[in-house]
Amino acid sequence: MKLFRFGSPRREKPGIIDPDGVLRDISPIYADLSGAALAPASLERLRHADLQSLPPVPEGARLGPCIGGTRNFIAVGLNYADHAKESGMAIPTEPVLFNKAPSCIVGPNDDIEIPRGSQKLDFEVEAAVVIGERASYIKESEAPAVISGYCICHDVSSRDFQLEGTGQWMKGKGCPTFGPLGPWLVTTDEIENVQALSMWLDVNGEPMQRGSTSTMIFGVHFLVAYISKFIALEPGDVITTGTPPGVGMGRKPPRYLKAGNKISLGITGLGEQHQRVVSPLAG
Fold first, then answer.
1. Which of 18, 105, 108, 250 could form a disulfide with 183 if both were Cys (CB 3.0 to 4.6 A apart)?
2. How many independent structural domains does the chain possess?
């Protein structure tokens, strides 16, 4: 199934794409795509719902982040060897983890705002995992049972905040609008092999990133189990799993985003995102 949320920010309703490709409003039977509703057993109810009886989503409705209520937004750094190399960093021997602020989550086509004072805004297409069941100290073999699905994450980064001065990755990764998610939450049964998905990102129509989840250093199921040793994962939590090479920081000379740039990105089976970069808000 391909699930989504639509409507104005922080007032989104849940939806589903029916077998005919029509976007349907499922709010009559689901309050939201969050919390316990994301459990695989709960989502199974949708397979038996009479989707044709549900109202279509209004034409032109904004797509919001594909899930709500995220408490932990965890990212994996340097999870592609060629990206680690272009970043001038050692290939990790175990996953590099950091937090993105849940408050940075926005819809897949919402504007990306340049933070005040940032001069080095960068782009990263990533495959993200959405947790559907509480997971703590699980084994890698148990990981598939706690995953509700996958989505695209654009891990927007401010490299000057992240790496200059006192640095700290969290400072450069969690600014407002730095976490577009969606367009769809794609349930696990729709993805035959999450470690074989092509990924791409363009800026103003120019190819920037090309890669595949097949070249991850640490695979999706390993990451879920590994992170569960340190954090009790809850339904609605997101793990974004790293980016392939081609980011702006790794180019010679570096290629950072500017106001007015248009970004398109996608992953096989998970859809596409389209964003515009806008100037810092006044204040």
1. 108
2. 2
Q: How far apart are CA 255 and CA 248, in angstroms?
A: 4
> Which whole number is the average pLDDT over 217-243?
97
Query: What's the mean pLDDT when you consider all of the chain?
Result: 95
* % of the chain surpassing 70 pLDDT: 99
Residue 242: inside a domain, yes or no?
Answer: yes
Per the domain annotation, does 98 fall within a domain? yes
Q: Judge if 127 and 246 occupy the same domain.
A: yes
Provide the pLDDT for residue 189.
95
Given a cut of 90, is residue 91 above it in pLDDT?
A: no
User: Residues 36, 120: one domain?
Assistant: no
Is residue 80 included in any domain, yes or no?
Answer: yes
Give residue 143's domain range: 73-278
Whether residues 26 and 124 fall in one domain: no
